[in-house]
Design brief:
By secondary structure, the chain is α+β, with helices and mostly antiparallel strands. Helices cover 30% and strands 31% of the residues.
């Protein structure tokens, strides 16, 4: 994966929560961006058993990605479903992804006590990983206006 720090952002603290673990966060004037990366396969495995476990999950991980995004939405919103927009080929090419989709949700979980809105972009690279990018803000208009500034922060090789 590639990551480029967007202008005007600084690294921020990871906040433990039960709704969705994430590995990295940055904060800017309009809100926060959080990143969660879920590898499907690894370059090296601790054992043959670990490798077999990863390989067994490949088909399920590749075919059920929209379902995983829906479960993430439900976790963040305390069970309220929000529509998922699947990206077209041009948008998928932006991330070098096999599948990409997005949703905007109202946060009703311990994922954030500071922000009310979350725009999630899910990008999936077949047989490699699934990444979730969470754009959080207290102001929906500011979120929409500034989303493009940080949307290109991450892509697959």
């Amino acid at each position: 994966m590639y990551f480029t720090m967007p202008n005007g952002f600084v690294e921020s603290e990871i906040i433990p929560n039960e709704a969705m673990e994430y590995e990295y966060a940055i904060e800017g004037a309009y809100g926060e961006v959080r990143f969660a990366i879920r590898p499907i396969t690894l370059k090296e495995y601790a054992s043959e058993e670990e490798e077999a476990g990863y390989l067994e999950r490949l088909e399920m991980e590749n075919s059920q990605i929209k379902w995983f995004l829906m479960m993430t939405i439900l976790n963040l919103s305390n069970g309220i479903d929000f529509p998922i927009k699947e990206y077209n080929n041009i948008q998928k090419d932006l991330f070098n992804a096999s599948w990409a989709g997005a949703a905007t949700v109202l946060i009703d979980s311990d994922f954030s006590n500071k922000y009310k809105y979350c725009h999630i972009i899910c990008i999936h690279k077949k047989d490699k990983a699934t990444s979730y990018i969470f754009y959080l803000s207290e102001n929906m208009e500011l979120l929409k206006k500034n989303l493009r500034k940080s949307v290109n922060a991450i892509s697959y090789f």
